[in-house]
């Protein structure tokens, strides 16, 4: 009379029968690495800015630009980077009393590869919409994002400037 395999041995055989076909199909690779997420909030200078649309006029500008950066390893030593920016800006002309508002979302993506640190520089444009018949103007923000060899991003803003949209 043949012997029945023990429950432990039966489970081992079952596992082997399931794992071997998956390995042959290439379905047992290492799990995907999780993205490294970085959050930064940049305060737009709460100061009086020259209104680029009206010589002699100034706008008391304020607000924030929130930046979320994600880096995902590609398995070849580099990182796929995505950035989402959300702006909430406002200002009031000191001389004309014109109110300016902004609320925008911007998305950007790039590849960070060797050599590290990898640096991405981008200028983002935010339209400040006049709440009267005066022209809108555009605030330009230059941001540098540095990615280290572990995929950790760091963002720095070093330049704000404005142009009249006309």
Describe this structure in words.
This protein has one domain (36-164). The chain has one helix at residues 7-25, and strands at residues 36-50, 58-73, 79-93, 99-112, 118-130, 137-147, 153-164. It starts with 6 loop residues before the first helix and ends with a strand. By secondary structure, it is mainly beta.
Question: How are the SSEs ordered, and which strands pair?
Answer:
Elements: H1 7-25, E1 36-50, E2 58-73, E3 79-93, E4 99-112, E5 118-130, E6 137-147, E7 153-164
Antiparallel strand pairs: 1-2, 2-3, 3-4, 4-5, 5-6, 6-7
Provide a short characterization of the protein structure.
Helix content is 11%, strand content 58%. By secondary structure, it is mainly β.
By secondary-structure content and strand pairing, the structural class works out as: mainly beta
How much helix, percentage-wise, in residues?
Answer: 10-25%
Would you report the number of β strands?
Answer: 7
What proportion of the residues form beta strands (DSSP E)?
A: over 45%
Determine the oligomeric state from the structure.
Answer: single chain
Strand order of the largest sheet: 1-2-3-4-5-6-7
Instruction: Write down the overall mean pLDDT.
Output: 81
C-alpha Rg, in Å? 27 Å
| Poorly predicted runs | 7-32
State the separation between the terminal residues, measured CA to CA: 96 Å
- How many structural units, i.e. domains? 1
User: Which geometry do the CA atoms define?
Assistant: elongated
Number of helices: 1
Helix and strand string, N-terminal first? HEEEEEEE
Query: What profile does the largest beta sheet have?
Result: 7 strands, antiparallel
